[in-house]
Design brief:
Elements: H1 3-14, H2 18-30, H3 37-52, H4 59-66, H5 71-83, H6 89-102, E1 105-116, E2 126-130, E3 135-149, E4 156-164, H7 175-190, E5 197-199, H8 207-216, E6 220-223, E7 229-232, E8 245-246, H9 247-252, E9 259-264, E10 272-283, E11 294-301, E12 310-314, H10 321-328, H11 330-341, H12 355-375, H13 387-393, H14 399-410, H15 421-424, H16 439-444, H17 457-471, H18 487-499
Parallel strand pairs: 1-5, 5-6
Antiparallel strand pairs: 1-3, 2-3, 3-4, 6-12, 7-8, 7-10, 9-10, 10-11, 11-12
Length: 510
């Protein structure tokens, strides 16, 4: 759906239909913390105006949709947002609990949002470095906590925000500390059952981050830098006892243990994409040996012949690897939802020097976004070829943009060309669903049947690899690589493991 089509239907949607009904019900449920009736009514009008107004959601434009336009109306609305005394945190918590009652929470997703600003009249605006774009920009940097429910058709909507403003914020608060504090505070205030948090921020998986989540007893899946130094803790794998190694090298050394995993592609509804993954148990170096906990490092390959394109670390070491991979794809759902609707509800449109005003506007815009999500007004995806450009336009980091970045650094080939070709012996189109997989690969995706007590192919290969490493002599700290000839013996069992989708055990270890 193009922009003109969205704008042409917006006003009609708010005057009736599922989005209108969802907005009314949401406002009645989440504004109960506002003690005065006129404040509750003003909040409801603001949310409805965000949904109905076309173009930029400025105070003037919103006021025009609430009542008679004029300086007095604009001043009253500006006071309600920037200078009033109502607290936005109870509204965010009420929105989270309302969504939790409506649809089961699958996982939290934390993603950054860059907000370009040209002048000096916006709170938190400055020269910022966007790690996802790899460049400086002038504007604001915010972190959104997104509620994602299970299933391809589940609800995906932001429920919490934190603005990074080191000049005026907490003393010496770093980019990383701002992001982590924002999501943990909202998860605690939401008071929902503990669910994993997916930190979709490049290189966020550091010792500081992982320790903060361990202290909060919240399971986490975080992106980790390819050059992050980790300790292999599995004695049967290469690199054990060799000291700290780069995460990318650890995964490359076990690339013969990769398994295929398929997942629903949110950018191509109704289709499934696939990639290869491998896992290694590791320790994060810490000066205090008592704080060292075993983590699971896993990587994703979109091209079997290249380096891993995405690396993650998690404390959910007992969760089946395919479930972990599919959990990270919740970030793609967030990207798609942000691309289609964040601008439509004006999340980037607040102008002013008031930090409380920014938080109140972001909160009411999140309520409007939830109404769109619950009412089915999110629009339709655009062709995949436009994804990277759309991600840049919205300040996000789309899957296509991430893939392109991975190819630039690793020399990879496009997704869907040859991922999994080492398993089928030929090119396999990854993003066309199971029906397009060759019979030779499809037959290997059936569950393996073996006698009780017998080892699976991956287990046998891992045991043999460990024996070879222990028997062989090492001439230096460089870990031994997995022998290529073991790949064929692991294929059947690895593919079978990917085909089975057990329920993920979501309690953190340690």
């Amino acid at each position: 759906m193009n922009t003109s089509a969205i704008e042409g239907t917006r006003a009609g949607r708010i005057r009736g239909g599922p989005v209108d009904d969802a907005a009314e019900e949401l406002c009645a449920a989440v504004f109960t913390s506002l003690r005065r009736r006129d404040q509750r009514e003003r909040g409801r009008q603001y949310v409805r105006a965000l949904l109905a107004a076309e173009g930029r959601k400025s105070i003037r434009n919103i006021a025009r949709h609430i009542g008679p336009a004029g300086p007095a109306a604009e001043q009253a609305l500006h006071h309600f947002i920037a200078s009033s005394t109502w607290d936005w945190e109870p509204i965010r918590a009420a929105l989270t609990r309302y969504l939790g009652r409506t649809t089961p929470l699958g996982a939290w997703v934390l993603q950054p949002m860059a907000i370009p600003k040209g002048g000096d009249h916006s709170v938190g605006a400055g020269h910022r470095f966007d790690p996802h774009q790899g460049q400086m920009f002038r504007g604001q940097q915010a972190f959104g906590t997104w509620f994602t429910s299970a299933g391809a058709a589940g609800v995906t909507t932001p429920v919490g925000w934190r603005l990074f403003h080191p000049e005026d914020g907490p003393a010496e608060e770093s980019y990383e500390a701002c992001a982590v504090s924002g999501v943990l505070e909202h998860v605690r205030e939401g008071r929902l059952p503990v669910r994993p948090v997916v930190l979709d921020i490049r290189d966020i998986g550091t010792r500081f981050t992982l320790n903060r989540f361990a202290e909060a007893k919240v399971p986490v899946v975080a992106r980790v830098s390819p050059t992050a130094r980790l300790l292999v803790s599995d004695p049967a794998l290469p690199g054990y006892g060799a000291g700290t190694l780069a995460a990318r090298d650890i995964l490359q050394n076990v690339r013969g243990l990769r398994m295929p995993v398929d997942w629903a592609d949110p950018q191509r509804p109704g289709t499934r994409s696939g990639s290869l993954m491998a896992t290694v148990r590791v320790l994060v170096p810490d000066p205090s040996s008592g704080r060292r906990r075993e983590m699971l490092l896993f990587g994703e390959w979109t091209d079997a012949r290249r380096l891993p394109t995405e690396l993650w670390v998690t404390d959910m070491a007992r969760t089946p690897p395919p479930a972990l991979m599919r959990m990270t794809k919740q970030a793609l759902r967030v990207e798609e939802a942000a691309r289609l609707s964040v601008q439509e509800v004006g999340l980037r449109d607040f102008s002013g020097r008031s930090l409380p005003g920014w938080n109140r506007h972001a909160t009411l815009a999140s309520v409007a976004h939830a109404a769109l999500a619950l009412g089915g007004g999110m629009g339709t995806p655009v062709p995949a070829g436009r994804t990277a450009a759309a991600g840049r336009a919205t300040g996000g980091h789309s899957a296509a943009a991430r893939t392109a970045a991975g190819q630039a650094t690793t020399g990879g080939t496009p997704v869907g060309r040859t991922a999994g070709s080492e398993l089928a012996g030929a090119s396999v189109p990854v993003a066309r669903g199971r029906s397009a997989i060759r019979p030779a690969l499809a037959s290997r995706l059936r569950p393996e049947v073996r006698p009780e007590g017998a080892r699976s192919a991956p287990e046998a290969a891992k045991a043999e690899l460990g024996a070879r490493v222990r028997q062989g002599s090492r001439t230096g700290p460089e870990p031994r690589t997995v022998p290529a000839q073991l790949g064929a013996r692991r294929t059947a069992g690895a593919a079978a493991a990917a085909a089975v989708r057990p329920q993920a055990e979501l309690a953190p270890t340690g």
